[in-house]
User: Which sequence fits this backbone?
């Protein structure tokens, strides 16, 4: 039987080893536009490196996944960070792994909700985009350029990710 | 009486002189994640220049504006592009001006809707974020760094921007 990973609520503190949580709560903010608008400032460190590197904005539209999630692989991007910001308030799973000498260790899972976005730091192992409940669109901010910016790792046995 | 500017529907073709429309319609796209997800790729040219330049992700939460909009000023950012992507489907106004020798010419106005985002090209004159109907949140992708990245221009007389 697959080893179980229990998804915890996504918080900036818990996610700090892997990247940024993009949300207004707790963010540095200040008024702009004659006080009509509040700017929650600099919520994600956008990293781009390697030949021809530049940041791009894209949209991902993903089908939902069923729980428990059978987690068979993770991936990472050696040349850049990758941010996902949901265009809905629906929940999605965020799976990351610590790295040890180029190999992902046991996954950690988080449940993002209420419009929280995430930014995976450059070269951080993470699962693919995993919305729950319904087809969901996300803004992506990541890196374009030359070179192979994708590394995949397939686990010997899948993990089972659950939400409690 | 203020000169009237009539907002047109926002389209990529009409907005091309000023920047990008961030939307799925008409975008280059391809499947990822074993076919579970469609990626609408590279929808905005993120520009950052000048000392210490780097792209950042922020959130703007703006009060709505009333129509007709009294347009008194526009601004531009000499060191970077600036993208706004709504986190709702509510409409907002997009105001831009052609430049002539450093001075904004007669404004053009667009009505963005259904989740369309915009990316103002570096050094493009534009109005401030102008949601309609209700308080609205937007993702911002723009430039941080050193140097004065804001230039403002106040019109001799305000324009009146309307939606027909």
Assistant:
């Amino acid at each position: 039987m697959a080893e179980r990973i229990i998804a915890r609520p996504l918080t900036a503190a818990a996610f700090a080893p892997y990247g940024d949580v993009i949300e207004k709560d707790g963010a540095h903010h200040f008024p702009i536009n004659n006080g009509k608008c509040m700017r929650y400032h600099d919520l994600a460190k956008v990293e781009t490196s390697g030949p021809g590197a530049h940041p791009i904005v894209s949209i991902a539209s993903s089908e939902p996944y069923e729980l428990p999630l059978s987690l068979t692989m993770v991936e990472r991007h050696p040349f850049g960070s990758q941010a996902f910001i949901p265009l809905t308030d629906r929940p999605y799973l965020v799976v990351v792994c610590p790295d040890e000498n180029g190999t992902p260790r046991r996954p950690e899972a988080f449940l993002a909700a209420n419009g929280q976005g995430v930014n995976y730091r450059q070269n951080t192992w993470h699962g693919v985009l995993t919305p729950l409940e319904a087809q969901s669109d996300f803004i992506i901010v990541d890196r374009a350029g030359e070179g192979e910016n994708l590394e995949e790792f397939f686990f010997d046995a899948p993990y089972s990710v659950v939400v409690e």
In short: DSSP finds one helix and 16 strands in chain A. The longest strand of chain A covers residues 151-163. Chain A has one domain: 3-163. The mean pLDDT of chain A is 97.
